[in-house]
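User: Hi! I'm a student and our assignment asks us to look at how structure tokens line up with a sequence. Could you show me two examples?

Assistant: Happy to help. In each example below, the sequence comes first and the structure tokens follow. Example one:
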Amino acid sequence: MFGYGCPEPIDVSLAFASYTDKILMVKGNWGEVYIPEFEYNFLGDLTTGFGYQIKLSETIVDFSLCDWYISDIPEDNIVTLQEDFENLQVLNNEILSSNSQHCFEEGYCAYSLELFDCYHPEFGFDCNGDSLELFIGQEAYGGIIFYIDETGERGLVAAMEDVLQGSFELEIQFEWGCYGVDVSGADEIAIGEGYQNTLDIVNSECETETGGITAAQAAIDYEVNGYDDWFLPSRDELLEMYYTIGLGGLQGNLGVFSNAGYWSSSEISDLESWFVSSDGGMSNYSKSWGGASHYVRPIRAFGYTLGCMDSLACNYNSDANMANGNCEYPELDYDCEGNFNAQIGDEIEGGLVFYLDETGQRGLVAAMEDIGQHEWGCVNTYISGADGTIIGSGYKNTLDINLDCTEISIAASEALAYESGVYEDWYLPSRDELIEMYNTIGNGGPETNIANFQNDNYWSSSESTIHAPWLVHFNNGLINGTNSKASNYWVRPIRAFGNWVMGCMDEESCNYNPEANMADGSCVYAELGYDCDGVFTAEIGDVIEGGYLFYLDESGEHGLVAAMEDITEGSSMGAWGTPEGFEWGCMGLAVSGADGTSIGTGYQNTLDIIAQNCQTENGGISAAQATLNYSSEGFTDWYLPSKEELEEMYDTIGGGSSQGNIGGFETSDYSYYWSSSEETNSLAWFVNFYNYIPDGTDKFQSLRVRAVRAF
């Protein structure tokens, strides 16, 4: 509502020329109107002092018709808001009355001032919002209704036409497809099953003989009137179409079907599917092109709740009344929560269950058969890591045996190579796993040997000694750890299933996993003498870095080790000494630089002796050369110790040690050991490991040699 207060009258169309896109109508006191959309101006000029009603499509900000306004408006020209409102109501009623009759005659509900037009109700409802009763043959939901269920609220509609796009060449017919292939799930025939059938066919990626698309694909690709959820009807849905809106319908062929056969989505076999002929007869027909091309009339559903309708599925929807192909099922022998539901003795996961842990979520199965008799292998050879006996250790044992043994066709390698169905992860059971087999599915089980074991010995993967593994006799359950690895005994592979946690189960390792319940050979250990963080932890007398630790410097990170034994290879008898020893060499010659005696000088002394090309009196190699040639525990950087290094050895790992002679030095039969420290051109230092007497002696004497190395 506004009052016109400008001093001069103005034509309403000129006054609102800048706002025509926002004005629906301006009305005067006597019902005269201006409607800019239709350029209809029955109002004429705006008169000073008069009030007007305006209807806007959106707000006008800072609205103004002139720069100043007359405040002295004649009182008799003022129209009150109440009077205008009443007049507007009269006008509305007149407009509605005059136009509504026309709307009703045309089938609409009434005239809308908002729309300036007649309006009709939402489909399926009357003008009061009440649901209308649907009927067969009604055009609705993108097609023609041919089926309504007992609720009257949901049903099926057929498309108004046959599918044309995608058919073979210029024909309007299609193959069913998948000739010679059984399409799992697409054999349902009832009303309500066509959608699921169609999904099963399409998901099977069926091919046709001609290379064209299948009838199901043609239906699911169909789009019309904004609807894209069409599908190929089942057999009974197709029959319902025929007898309601087809050639068999009481009202005639409302669907304008051709006088020909139409495909259903219902499969009969890998070679044939159902179709309905022009006379309403059901028949089986070849899926291939040869004489078996038929028309396709897609259908769609309305009012249905789509979902999984299989009560055995994990996502069963009790409210669903049309299957949509999204059913989800648990893995075999598990429930929908992932809980294992098999029992001891059940045949699952490729074998017979013989062990379930306390959670019931993981276990072990034995193969359904033996794989012959085989040697255990690695005769008289210790297999590092293959001594695990507990349940959960068989897999790692098997890997360790297979890694270290060079023989072929031994028990462990045959178990690893075994395949049964889709399962390839078999191995040789540990001792306790083998015992569990005997006690559950063997002769010791409640049902007595349901796994058909031989009444004989079976190998485990658990090593008992260097000569013998553990085995179990399946006649009486006798456990034996003394039979030779060379013996031929039966092998029954096993495999694990469920949520086993693979990992390192050795608490002494650097990557111990307390959650692991099956060893997988992944354990990583600290280097000898170090912790898992690389911190040096060894003490004097420990065996590290290839020998006995006998010296550590003040940092505690560097030191010296002595070899585990005296060097004897290449030894020779000099003028005096032991045949297990070596001459020092360079008798009568001064070796430049080889006179260092302190700890840390032995390596340089040794190099200097070699550089001098010292010769011996009897033609053998020198003590220094013997140490440089030495190789032990994977190390090749050995040398002849200096005088004080040799003395340190005596005091820490020799006869002078509080721990005793842990280095195993000779103390009775000629117990003299060369150092690399030269005393004179004829003498070199040695240490007597019997009584710790260092002294110098002739270089041509044959003394014992114990190499050292630094780290």
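Example two works the same way, sequence first and then tokens:
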Amino acid sequence: MGRHTLSDGRPANLAPAALAVQRASAAAEAESATVPLSSQQLLMWLAEQAGTAGSAYHMHAEFDVAGPLDREVFRRAVDALIARHDILRTTIVDAEDGPRQVIHEPAPQSISVIDLAWEHAGADAWTRCDPVARLIGRRWDLAHECPIRAGIVTSAGSVVGVVFVLHHVAADAESLEILFGEFAALYGAHQESREPPLAEPAPRYADFARRQRSPSAQHEISRKLERWSELLRGAPQTISLAIARPPAAEPDSAGAVVTMLVDDTVAAGLRRLATELRATVFVVALVGFAIALEAYGADPDILIATPSQQRDDDCDAVVGCFVNPLPLRVRLSGTATVRDLIRQARATVLTSLECRDVPFNSILGAMKVRGAGDVPPLAQVSIRVAPAPAPRIDLGKAVLTRVRHADADAVKYDLTLVLEQGEGDTIRGIIEYRRHLFDHDAMARFAASLGAVLKQLAENPDVPVALLQTMPTSAVRRILEQWNPAHGSGEVTGVQWPARCYVLDRYGRLSPVGVPGELVISGTGAEPDPFADASGTVMRRTGVSAHWTATGELSLASRAASGGSREIDDRAPGGYDPAVLRQIQSIWSGVFGVENVRAQDNFFDLGGDSLLAMRVVSRVRRSLGARLTLKEVLSSPTPAEQACIVSARRES
């Protein structure tokens, strides 16, 4: 490929958007000074401040352009779109009493023009070029940049692509469809010099945020928090999967995907089962997902997050982020049938939906969840149903066709199952995962296992969980027929290698590749061997932990401490300056409203949460002139530990 240049020689960014912010009127700032963040915005703002979000909250859509696109009309349509929705001209400032929205006056939006110095080749070749990647991935300064970016891509004098990027603080998936529909109407109206047939949006997103903070809403949240406490009492706060690598020293949001197709027959069976049990395909898939996660090392008591819409009836046409994560608890039992689990999951989902207006941050605070900053507490894995996005935008002479990507550039969770309705009855599954935790081959095996589980749910919902096969038949045959007899990597009492053997999970099922279980030897012992070809064959449990590698080797190295386990390191670094400690203790006193904070007091025991942690970060920066990150406040939760960190930075 040739050189990538911009029309004005600068990087593809929206620096002029910051200038538009500076032009906002004082009256507009005064009006918006009382606008708090919604709970959804607060969650993402905290992640941005922690520096762990990367581009995970950058929602982007790229479109191939067929036909002549009028650049000036495009620009005017974008400006009109931003003028219609004040959330698109909103920045977030860190005030003393917490972050606030500042709504600015409409101003011309800079459109990035990316000129490719090579002939356009391939349906989506331009989407992979560096300038487009920078436009999408460049870190968002929410205090100075409005939450929308737009760009056009040209090649050989023609517009070949259009890019829209929105920060999740200003939009959700439903908002994107609203915006693209309105953009088409605005483009057509400006092209024909007529008024667009669009009603004024009401209420504004700021009204939704204010409504969330009203006394009546807060009272309702307090009441429903008790329900959440009952639902989640004793639930594990993290998930460890056997196929996860140790976390990177500096975790990031870089992601990738594997896809799976649930064929028409299986999809129809899942729908029939859901209808019969008065549930939804989502609930059935939730159970299947939980079963697959447990097979790969998760606890049978599992929390799986799912996004819930909080749009009221009067917000149908409002652009903004109305999504609130809900932690759904699934408790598996080997003796429970698939039907039993679906009924239980349905009840859990209904109860959770009744309490969906409780902000996720409030749930974390009520449960006193502790996290190290890189671990999404209560929400490491997630599931969601995503209707296939509208494939095209008709602009008259020009048609924009949405480009579908085979990969994910950034992800919010360690592992996410996305269900999309395909053609006919087909269901398309997309598994998004963090690259630093999982490799592609392991995720492909997980996807195959999930597909096998869903097929069994559809075909035989009366079978107990303990009898479900958690690998596709091809993988089972490979273990039983190609990898056996096996040569173990170590000595086991009473075993002569090679030997026919299995690795079994706690239910006595074959463990998937890479997942540790108990080594069992066939041909000796007193327990019947259900995997042998000949009847009457017996097997013996050894009590030794083992797992199969991807190349068919039997490893006897115990992995009881899974690579996916992530513990908070509470050890304080070296010494601290006593003056720094006293200053941090004073900051804590102001944040928590208590006197006599001791050096070893614990942030969480005093009622600390993510928002209070950010206040500590902000005040340390102002008072001591040193950086203390959100992750460090959460993982070093005493004044003494934080004083060590700050003292070391001041000295350096």
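Here is something you could point out in your write-up. The chain has 18 helices and 19 strands.
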